[in-house]
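Notes from the 1:1 (GR / supervisor)

We went over the backlog. Supervisor wanted to see one worked example end to end before approving the batch request, so GR pasted a single chain during the call. The sequence is below; no edits were made to it. Supervisor asked that the structure be written out right there so they could see what the output format looks like.
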Amino acid sequence: MKKLVLFLTLFLSTGATLAQNLPENLFTDLDKKISPAVVSISIGINFRSQFPQGYARDPLFDLFEQFMPYGPPGAQPYQQGPDEDVGPQAIGTGFIIDPSGLVITNYHVIEQADTVTVHLNTDQKDGDKYEATVVGGDKRTDIALLQIKAKRIFPVAPLGDSKSVQRGQWVAAFGNPYGHECTITKGIISAIGRRIRDLNAIPFLQTDAAINPGNSGGPLVNTKGEVIGVNSAIDARAQGIGFAIPIDHVKSILPNLKKYGKVIRGFIGVQIGSVTRQAQNALNLPNNKGALIVGVQPNGAADKAGMKPYDVITKFGGTSVDSADDLVDAVKDHPVGQSAPVEVIRSGKRKTLTVRVDEGPTEKSRITRRQQMKKFKDEANPAPFKLGFKILDYSVDLAKEMKLPANSAQGPVIVEVESGSPAAQNGLRVGDIILDVNQTPVKNQKGVMQNLKKGSNILRVQHGDQVSLVFLEI
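Structure output shown during the call:
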């Protein structure tokens, strides 16, 4: 009997301690702290310009579903009506990190956006709604930075660190799943350093907190109320398997996004391949780990460092290189302009070289190209008589942005066609080059304006490699 009483006493005292360690209002307090800084993101998509041929199927979505709010590739494209320029409003999530209105979200949420609107969680019926601009984005890590267009002080979600995150710790996910605004779910960190190369170059945090399409770009928060990750993807085959981008990496690229609108990546000027079994035997290598150099760019960083074809890189900047992908990641993430020790195997012997990392060539992202096209549209002149199109004189930059064929005529280019206008109804398209108006050759905007008339017009235009006549009736 005494043993039973002692057991019950210990059990009850232990239970009391556990109750004290798990505050009843823990997640309620997190909600009050974080939700005011969480925003829903609506984007308008110009389907006429962005998706002229519908969606392309990405096999990746058979296994993993990123939270693309307008539907994964392979879905039926939006059926645009005759008077519609902008497609359906897509929903994603973001969170404010600066009182001025800087917002972090996923790159894939706003990648196709022509317009971006953010909605704050407030007590108002429709919430506070603001237009936002894209400051910058990085497709490689799936992070984008927005700026809310409003002069006020915004609530902020504090950024924590992800290096101290451990398996099993409690977390909460915030977002707008399927458009259900201001949602919070809880779970634990299921794994750290989860590398899924096809989804992201940065290893994920894995969580079982319930996240769904629409949560994309929302914060993953620890029990201190600090953001430790950005929700990014789920495994569509299972329940309770979600992935978040560690916040430490997000913080490391924010200065580049703010200053340049993109992330400046490292580059050393080598072509590389995997170390196959045949290469291992032919080059007398101890194993098949490393990145095999098959080409060196003349006068590039690697060439100046003394790297040669058939060298096998096994370490870069102190980090082991087990594959070609490892080298790509290590070089791209190394600070540009700084040197790095490189360990190579050459003719069976190990050598250490020093390479100064250069800035790599960067292709303009869709966001950058869209911003450039907006600039061209703003500079363009509208055709008279409410014909419904804008033109701009030909230039090398314009031709490059619009991807005009190399053999295109260098005449005035149509950069915008108003939906439902006479121009749209009679077949004029963005990218058309006007050759003559009413049988008079034109070389610039001025010539087009002078020769258009009220009533019937005949335009001879080039689109791609095809030349056709367009009859405008107003």
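Supervisor's comment: DSSP finds twelve helices and 28 strands in the chain.
Batch request approved.
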